[in-house]
Design goal:
CATH superfamily of the largest domain: DD-peptidase/beta-lactamase superfamily
Helix content: 10-25%
Distance between the termini: 65 Å
CATH topology of the largest domain: Beta-lactamase
Number of helices: 13
Largest sheet: 9 strands, mixed, barrel
Strand content: 25-35%
CATH architecture of the largest domain: 3-Layer(aba) Sandwich
Number of strands: 21
Radius of gyration: 24 Å
CATH class of the largest domain: Alpha Beta
């Protein structure tokens, strides 16, 4: 089992070492921003890779894979007779008064399958340019049952992705057991070897952010994934109810309008996605577990990749198609190449040349921006031997962002508004960021900041120079404050 960290050669599990080297090369070729991966078959690890500066002790935000872990906890509730999946969900929350009629009919199973009479889920408000200091103290469960987005759709029919329901399911575990869902699963997590470093961010009222908040190492993530692959069984012992796990990993509802796996997707169970060759967990920006049950095969990845649904699944499924039913002859040369490839993994985010002769012209100049919606007022660049510096001012606040030349600079992003352990509560610290600068041609500089912390995301900055002017574009993607860094404008130096 993965708990035992039993490493074997790929050939012993029917996969040529060269195919995993190709897997690594493909991810680099398509510029997939992968941070780690574990590839396992029959409970044995055939490849484990970490892209520097990340390592086996790095905890990653699992985003919507948190939903799948909450589902495991609900499965345990079901197995212990603590919950009726067909009972109205609100019946477990006496504190909720006068729910809307439509939401009063929602069952526990409806929440698990995301078949709710809602057009959208609005459980959490994020900062905007107009309201950068938003604080939401509301009870997410109460909001759910008094939804302002109720639509004319029967409960229990028609899938629509809904993170709010997952938060309420996490609250359900706490309500019925007095423990958060990770504490409640602790006996099972101990059995499969999950460390006590796993944790979950919280809602404003202190309940766990069950839709998005789990942080875990890649190894812990893989151990939970293996429990899912084996439908709740570990070493011949059924830790979670088999009938629940079979339904959880089935296509109980159609997801034709969803594009987690493009084009279209393959159905949804209890907070678990169906896939062309099996099922799995999917988290925003590429936190994934892909389970291929007929081959007892699993690929686990963490990343900061917005286009993961295509890139990562293709890489994993291509490996799956290479599996042989019987062990292959050992291949020392191929395994040596794989070992070298694993040891040399490093984040690579350059999109051009590291340096340009224009640096001597534009360096240290102050550029004043025309009025724009982001409030970007001025910027300047400095170019040193090891790193460059972008200085810019947003709504009167001066910011400094260091970047590497064609390689990453392990630094921080100049904003202290990222959420901390509580949603909608500023952490008061700058988050870790890997920042690269590369010249796409002699006059166009591209700076990419990958925020890799409790909240991952990215900010791309393009600066295109001509004479004494520069065209500026920033595009931020992620959760919360990064969405505020979006602008297209021009600036002029004196």
């Amino acid at each position: 089992m993965i708990k035992d960290l039993n490493f074997v050669t790929p050939e012993s599990e029917g996969i040529p070492s060269e195919r995993i080297v190709e897997f690594i090369e493909y991810l680099r070729e398509v510029r997939a921003n992968v941070h780690s991966f574990i590839i396992a078959r029959h409970g044995n690890i055939i490849a484990e890779g970490y892209y520097k500066p990340f390592d086996k002790d790095t905890k990653k935000r699992l985003y919507s894979c948190s939903k799948s872990i909450v589902s495991l906890a609900v499965g345990k509730l079901y197995g212990e007779g603590l919950v009726d999946l067909h009972a109205p969900l609100v019946s477990y929350f006496p504190r909720v008064e006068n729910p809307t009629p439509e939401m009063a009919e929602v069952t526990v199973e409806d929440a698990l399958t995301m078949t709710l009479p809602q057009s959208a889920s609005h459980y959490c408000r994020f900062p905007t340019l107009d309201d950068p200091d938003v604080i939401d103290d509301g009870d997410w469960t109460d909001k759910f049952f008094h939804s302002d987005s109720v639509c004319d759709k029967p409960s229990g029919r028609l899938f629509r992705y809904n993170s709010h329901a997952s938060c309420v399911l996490a609250d359900l575990v706490r309500k019925l057991t007095g423990k958060n869902f990770l504490e409640y699963l602790r006996p099972e997590l101990d059995i499969i070897g999950v460390s006590d470093t796993i944790e979950c961010l919280k809602s404003p009222t202190g309940c766990e952010w069950g839709s998005s908040g789990v942080l875990a190492t890649t190894r812990d993530f893989a151990k939970i994934g293996e429990l899912l692959l084996n439908l709740g069984e570990h070493c011949g012992r059924q830790l979670l109810p088999r009938d629940y796990m079979e339904r959880a990993t089935s296509a109980l509802v159609g997801t034709a309008f969803d594009e987690v796996i493009k084009p279209g997707s393959y159905g949804y169970g209890y907070q678990i996605w169906r896939e062309p060759y099996g099922f799995g967990m999917h988290g925003m920006r590429g936190q994934v577990v892909y389970c291929f049950p007929d081959a007892d095969f699993m690929v686990v990845m963490t990343s900061n990749e917005p286009d993961y649904a295509v890139k990562l699944y293709y890489a994993a499924s291509h490996l799956y198609k290479q599996i042989c039913d019987t062990p292959l002859p050992e291949n020392p040369d191929g395994y040596a190449k794989l070992t070298e490839a694993l040891h040399s993994l490093e984040i690579y985010r350059a999109f051009g040349e590291g340096r340009s002769p224009l640096e001597g012209v534009v360096g240290e100049k102050l550029y004043k921006c025309k009025e724009n919606s982001m409030g970007l007022s001025e910027l300047s660049l400095s170019f040193g031997e090891e790193t460059g510096i972008l200085r810019f001012t947003v709504r009167g606040e001066d910011k400094l962002l260091r970047f590497g030349y064609g390689t990453f600079c392990d630094t921080t992003f100049p904003d202290k508004s990222f959420y901390g352990k509580y949603s909608n509560r500023k952490s008061g610290r700058e988050f870790r960021a890997l920042v690269t600068g590369s010249w796409q041609n002699e006059s166009r500089l591209f700076i990419l900041a990958d925020v890799s912390d409790d909240t991952p995301g990215s900010l791309g900055i393009v600066l295109e120079f001509s004479g004494n002017t520069v065209a500026v574009e920033m595009r931020g993607k992620g959760e919360g404050i990064l969405d505020r860094y979006n602008v297209t404008c021009s600036a002029t130096s004196e």
